[in-house]
Amino acid sequence: MEERLMIWKKITVAIPNDFDPEIISDAFMRVGANGTEMVDDEDNSVKTKINSYFDENNYNEKILTDLKTQLNKLPEFGFDMTGVEVSVSALDDSSWENEWKQYYHPVKISRYLTVVPNWVDYQPKYSDEHIIVMDPGKSFGTGTHPTTYSCMQALELILGDAKSLYDVGTGSGILSIQARQLGVKDIQAFDLDPEAVRAAKENIQLNPGCEDIEVFENSLLDGVDGKVDVIVANILADVILQFIPDIDAHLNKDGFVVLSGIINEKEALITQKMAEIGFVVLEAFHLKGWSTLICRRKEEFEAEDGAILR
Ligand SMILES: C[S@@+](CC[C@H](N)C(=O)[O-])C[C@H]1O[C@@H](n2cnc3c(N)ncnc32)[C@H](O)[C@@H]1O
């Protein structure tokens, strides 16, 4: 039987070339988009298009309505919306994949780590450079979004000799793959979206040495009993707020927590809620409006006189 092709909805926001595209990308993220791409309009050199793709199971009219609501708020912040236009079109699986492919390229996360789309033949520059191979576009997490990028830099800083990790909201599985490449032995990844679970499993198989990383369809750490050395969660701030009360019970002594997906405006609230459970933020990354926080238990990080313990 012939397999039916998935139909994708493509929402496009066309903006004048002097309009900041990040503002539109952020509006997309706030209504649940997994990512955006930016394309110069070939027919009209004064416009840029920001596209985002939704599969037919995840698209509904509310996404479009919510996006328009977000855009309608922008004049209150002084943005001139003249020439900003929203449109929707449909395309099938094969054209969707090909459209995405032209916008992905290797992303250098650090001196030691590069994320490479699986159709690119990339030669590492250094003998100790790790390569993460991804089939991007199937789920969130390619290294190009500021939150993923910052999470990867945070993990590189803190993993050290960590032995175990929970990746909450794994998306494409990218952070779990990185953790394994940096030596973490026991990794469990969770996502409530079955499509993300499937994509993460596929990406894990693309990376030798990662095959035994476990991926579960699960909301946050609901029903999970264990404890680990590191918890990473790149989910939106409102979901992280629900998750904070669960952190302490799932983290080993001297463990680290990396929280991302937090718009800058909500960072103070997350910091305060973490303080309420006894955690301090020891490093904050700020990139393109997004905050990524590395946190530890206060008593494990600071002596009473404020000196850093370890
Ligand atoms: C922003 S993406 C992050 C993907 C990847 N970890 C990264 O850093 O690029 C957030 C992911 O969290 C998942 N998610 C949202 N709410 C969740 C929940 N309550 N429990 C588990 N996963 C959730 C989404 O399905 C999505 O795949």
From TrEMBL:
CDD domains to which the protein is assigned, alphabetical: AdoMet_MTases
A GO MF label: protein-lysine N-methyltransferase activity
InterPro entries: Ribosomal_L11_MeTrfase_PrmA, Ribosomal_PrmA_MeTrfase, SAM-dependent_MTases_sf
Keyword Aminoacyl-tRNA synthetase (UniProt): no
Annotated GO biological process: methylation
Record-listed S-adenosyl-L-methionine binding positions: 148, 169, 191, 234
Record EC number: 2.1.1.-
Catalysed reaction, written as an equation: L-lysyl-[protein] + 3 S-adenosyl-L-methionine = N(6),N(6),N(6)-trimethyl-L-lysyl-[protein] + 3 S-adenosyl-L-homocysteine + 3 H(+)
GO cellular component, one term: ribosome
Keywords, sorted A to Z: Cytoplasm, Methyltransferase, Ribonucleoprotein, Ribosomal protein, S-adenosyl-L-methionine, Transferase
One Pfam family recorded for the sequence: PrmA
Subcellular location: Cytoplasm
Family the entry assigns: Belongs to the methyltransferase superfamily. PrmA family.
NCBIfam families per record: prmA (TIGR00406)
Protein task: Methylates ribosomal protein L11.
Protein name in UniProt: Ribosomal protein L11 methyltransferase
Gene source species: Companilactobacillus formosensis
Record lineage: Bacteria, Bacillati, Bacillota, Bacilli, Lactobacillales
Record gene name: prmA
